[in-house]
Amino acid sequence: MENDTFNKIKNLCKEANISISQLETILKIGSSTISKWKSSNPSADKLSLVADYFGVSLDYLMGRTKIKKTSDDALSDCRIISFTRTMEKLEEKDQKKAMDFLKMFEDAFSED
To answer: At a CB cut-off of 8 Å and minimum separation 6, what does 83 contact?
Structure first.
């Protein structure tokens, strides 16, 4: 059974119109290295190369989040900045209500 990390990389390659073999060449990692990740875990340094190439977070590649953006991308997103500033002005109980409200959207639009 293929692992989640390999499948994410395979999908990112498909979106970028490159093959896994081409990605290995671009990143200057050994031939078939990524294909071996179907059944084993990649090293952190090689996984970081893939994440940097595609501009996604390590957490996304490892299946810890569905959010592709890196923290730097998120922190520079004006919507995130605006949301954070608004949340800071709310009392804690209202912050919880706002997060619960947003959670409804996450559940409604989840891919699962």
So the answer is: none
DSSP 23-78: HHHHHT--TTTTGGGGTSPPPHHHHHHHHHHHT--HHHHTTS-S--S-HHHHHH-H
Q: pTM score > 0.70 for this model?
A: no
- Where in the chain are the domains? 4-69, 77-108
DSSP characters for 78-107? Answer: HHHHHHHHHHHHS-HHHHHHHHHHHHHHHH
| Domain spanning 4-69, CATH class | mainly alpha
Q: Give per-residue pLDDT as tens, 35-78.
A: 899 888 889 999 999 999 998 988 899 888 887 876 676 667 78
